[in-house]
Write a structure and sequence with these properties.
Layout lengths: L4 H27 L5 H15 L10 E2 L4 E2 L7 E2 L2 E2 L3 H12 L3 H15 L3 E3 L3 E4 L5 E3 L2 H9 L3 H20 L3 E7 L2 H4 L14 H12 L3 E3 L2 H7 L15 H18 L11 E6 L16 H5 L12 E6 L5 E5 L5 E6 L7 E6 L3 H4 L9 E6 L17 H7 L3 E7 L4 H4 L8
Parallel strand pairs: 8-9, 8-16, 14-15, 14-16
Antiparallel strand pairs: 1-2, 3-4, 5-6, 6-7, 10-11, 12-13, 13-15
């Protein structure tokens, strides 16, 4: 961090005054206060310990463990003006960056987790300690889960999706929307103390789209709920659906695609190796490393191993003939499959639910472009502002566009086409 000269002088003067005051106090401590040398040693150790937090100030701007931006340093004097909130600003900055802060947070989380009996929660997530089921508590998800979706919001969302459908039709692209069911509704019996409305909010939204528009929308809740009786459809320690759940979503999607593209042939499970693994694999890395467990991270339990279940992963038997290219950022990729049964190209766009879907979907098309919109570069409310992606889509020239997001994801849909753009 760079201090300007005025701030350096202020801190230097304060340090000198504090040192002089402390030296005089210690000099008089024995004679005036009549205290023993042991008391003097204790006092010295106490003051030394006070300086440990400031001995190393971290320069990170983001805390991955807390999933948030850290406070920015605001100087006492800037551009010739005095910052009258310097005390509060400095306190926030120091609290976010003092030495050993990570260890203090870990110790605090450990004590809090250990003392919890049935469940442990943070502002972002909670875990049922008896079953190890974890769920998100972020405010955007809770708006949908607790309050439901209002009729006027459904109408606005339908208008925005219809406008997007018009854009696709105008450019000879067939749009399909795939909604990933929410983990909270699917595993409702494990969600205490989350309060969830009895009715699945997204079902009404999907029904409205089907009845009032010509958009092809797929919501595979019933089939995935049926399959959940035998296999895990969501990871217990992560908020994403598994490969196996995404497969059943794909099957319903494929039935819709078949109606419009007669040469299109859906894949079969026989084309894949079904592999069971305890790892949570949600980020589509080229080196096939198993990552994830986002909810443990939100709980501050990132180092805790809660890998007590086996999840099904799909590995294509012809994966050597799939070429993958990273474009610009890690979450944007282009796939080319040499042995495709068709010449169709598809543009897959959506939030992080697209990750597990893209473990097998590229093998069903000649070319596939995956564009993940929640990559940390834009605000949550702006993730689906579709004007920002139009050029990418048109440059790729897809036959099919698949929009995939989960059934807690609603506010960004309301902001697809802001008023100023209309």
């Amino acid at each position: 961090m760079k201090f300007d000269i005025l701030n350096f002088i202020v801190i230097l003067v304060l340090s000198i005054l504090l040192s002089c005051k402390l030296s005089n106090y210690l000099a008089d401590f024995k004679s005036v206060k009549n205290c023993s040398r042991l008391d003097i040693v204790f006092l010295l150790i106490f003051f030394i310990l006070l300086f440990i937090p400031m001995s190393h100030i971290k320069k990170d701007n983001v805390s991955k463990a807390e999933n948030r931006k850290l406070a920015v340093y605001k100087p006492f004097i800037k551009d010739g003006k005095i910052n009258y909130n310097f005390g509060k600003d400095f306190d926030k900055w120091f609290n976010d960056r003092f030495n050993l802060r990570g260890e203090v947070i870990k110790a605090y989380n450990f004590v809090k987790y250990t003392s919890a009996i049935n469940y442990y929660e943070t502002p972002r997530a909670f875990i049922n300690k008896k079953t190890n089921w974890c769920f998100r508590l972020d405010k955007y998800a809770q708006e949908v889960l607790k309050n439901g979706i209002k009729k006027e919001q459904i109408i606005l969302a339908a208008e925005n999706l219809s406008k997007y459908n018009d854009f696709c039709n105008k450019n000879n692209i067939k749009l399909y929307i795939l909604i990933t069911p929410s983990k909270e509704f699917l595993y409702k019996g494990n969600t205490y103390p989350i309060l969830i409305k009895d009715k699945d909010n997204y079902k009404g939204f999907v029904d409205y789209i089907k009845e009032n528009t010509d958009i092809k929308i797929v919501y595979p809740f019933d089939e995935i709920q049926k399959q959940a009786k035998n296999e895990f459809m969501f990871f217990k320690t992560d908020h994403h659906w598994t490969d196996y759940a995404a497969w059943f979503g794909y099957l319903e999607l494929a039935e819709e695609i078949k109606k419009d593209f007669h040469s299109y042939k859906p894949m079969s499970l026989d084309e894949f190796r079904l592999v069971k693994n305890k790892y949570v694999y949600v980020i589509n890395t080229l080196d096939k490393k198993y990552l994830g467990q986002t909810l443990l991270s939100d709980l501050g339990l990132k180092d805790k191993k809660v890998l007590d279940e086996d999840y099904i992963y799909l590995e294509h038997k012809d994966d050597k003939n799939l070429e993958t290219t990273i474009k610009k950022i890690r979450t944007t990729r282009i796939y080319n499959y040499k042995n495709s049964s068709n010449n169709l190209s598809v543009f897959l766009i959506g939030n992080s639910m697209t990750e597990n879907l893209s473990h097998f979907l590229p093998y069903n098309f000649k070319r596939m472009y995956k564009r993940r919109i929640n990559d940390g570069h834009v605000k949550y409310e702006d993730e689906m502002k579709m004007k920002r992606y139009e050029k990418e889509i048109l440059d790729f020239k897809p036959d099919i566009l698949i929009l995939n997001f989960d059934a807690r994801y609603f506010k960004p849909i309301l902001n697809m086409y802001p008023k100023e753009e209309k």
